[in-house]
Write the structure tokens for this entry.
Amino acid sequence: MSWGLIATLVVATYLIRVSGFTLLVNRDVPEVVTKSLAYVPAALLAALVAVQTVTTDGAFALDARIGGVFAAGVAVALRAPFALVFVVGVGVTALLRLLL
Amino acid sequence: MPASRGCNPDAAAGNVEPVTTDDSSESARRSITGQVIAFTAVAFVFGITFGMTAAAGGLNVLETLGISFMFAGAAQFTVVAIIAAGGPVTAAIAAAMLLNARFGMLALAVAHRIPMSMGRRYLAAIVLGDPPVVMALGERTPRRRERVYWTTALITAAGWLSGTVVGALVEGGIGDPNVIGLDAALPALMLAILGQNFRDRPNLLAAACGAVIGVSLVPIAPAGLPVLAGGLGALVPLLMYRSKPTVSTHPDEVVPSDGESSDGATGRGGPA
């Protein structure tokens, strides 16, 4: 892979991040904008979790992960501690994969 | 400060979360350590799988390490796959940027909640990822937010880079880590953190809508777009709760005036 491509990818990715991280800082931002952004982290990360759980390489791939992440979700709902949620998610996935 | 505008009877009733300074609480610190370790371990193992994939795709160790400075797992795997398959460079760049666009959206949404001087922002953006952001948002005081951001970002980044190198060097030496459920590790970690920091109803609603939007777009949109569009789920609670004033979310609205202020801001204590 050419270094030109690598540098382009690294720099372009950085520009995406840095523009978001600086654009609205130290600026008068209309309230409607800050309000609209308030719940973006939750929505974005939940979308990420959901999409990651049901896809491989951008296409649907339904497998043991779904059971594992669902079990982790149940653990979260029951207010299980962080480590337990993680172990449940990974463990149930591995177990299902072994059995299926 | 918009947060203290008087339209919130809950505040008077004491329903607002007490802003305790659990800074030095031993248990809080320990749980953060555990979470950072978990994210770093996952980043390290994923780094290994990326290094192996890149090596299999014909990249040498230095190239593999170089591309890992994107700090963007999904995009990196995609680029390697496209290039290894002989695809055009432009397609690789476009696909990667579409996958990485969500970092921009996340950064935009959290920038004012993670106080930091402008100079540091330019550095912090290099390693901006989901773990440092969600870990930082879980903190109450501006100073702790910045500290937790840096700690999480740098340690997980180091885990990612070193994992990458290990993976590129061992070249297929470790088996398929998905057998032990690794592909569920990242979603499970994120879920655990989300469940911890976004329990209030508007956030849960936004999360549910984001997940539904994301998944439903998978069959029709190119990779990256479904997650990005999922961010629009954030608008649903705004529409739903418009009539009633929103339950004040976090003590977030303590907007940092940037620069030196991060230290002084810790003295802000509770709404006494």
Remarks:
- Chain A has a mean pLDDT of 94.
- The first strand of chain A starts at residue 55 and ends at 56.
